[in-house]
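Thread: "does anyone have the structure for this chain?"

Original post by V.I.:
We have the sequence but no experimental structure in hand. Need at least a predicted one for the grant figures.
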Amino acid sequence: MKKALGTHLILEFFGCDPGTLKEVPYVEKAFLKAAKESKTHVVAHNFHQFNPYGVSGVVVIEESHYTIHTWPEHAYAAIDLFYCSDEIEIEKAIQVLKEAFKPTMIKSTELLRGKPNELMAFSRRKEAASGVP
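Reply from O.Q.:
Generated one for you, C-alpha cells below.
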C-alpha cells in the first residue's frame, strides 16, 4: 500500500548565487532540466519576471507540479516539488537545482499528502453523516 497519494517536498535554498535567481531564462531552464532528470512528464510551464528582480514559476507535470519563487536580494529561493508517483527520481531533481542555484544551506520539509488512513477516516465520517452504511 502506498504511504500517501503524493509527496510534497518543500525546499528552502539559502545563500544562493543571486545571479542565478534574477531572470526567467536561467530559472526556467534549471526547472525544466530538473523535471526531465527526475523522470517526470511535463504538461506545461509558466515563469514570470518581477521588476526590479525575482522570478516565480511553475512546471506542471503529469505527476503534479514543481514551483519556485526567488528573492535574489536575499540570495533565497522557495521551492516546492509535489509529485504523485513512486517512479519520480526526486533526488535527481534536487541535485539539478542545487547545481543551478548553488545554495550554501538547504532546509527541507516533507509532507505526505492524502495518507490512506486519513482518507479512510474521512470517508467513514462522511458515510456516517449521510446515513449510508
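V.I.: this helps a lot. The helical segments are 24-37, 90-101, 116-130.
O.Q.: and The chain has one domain: 6-130.
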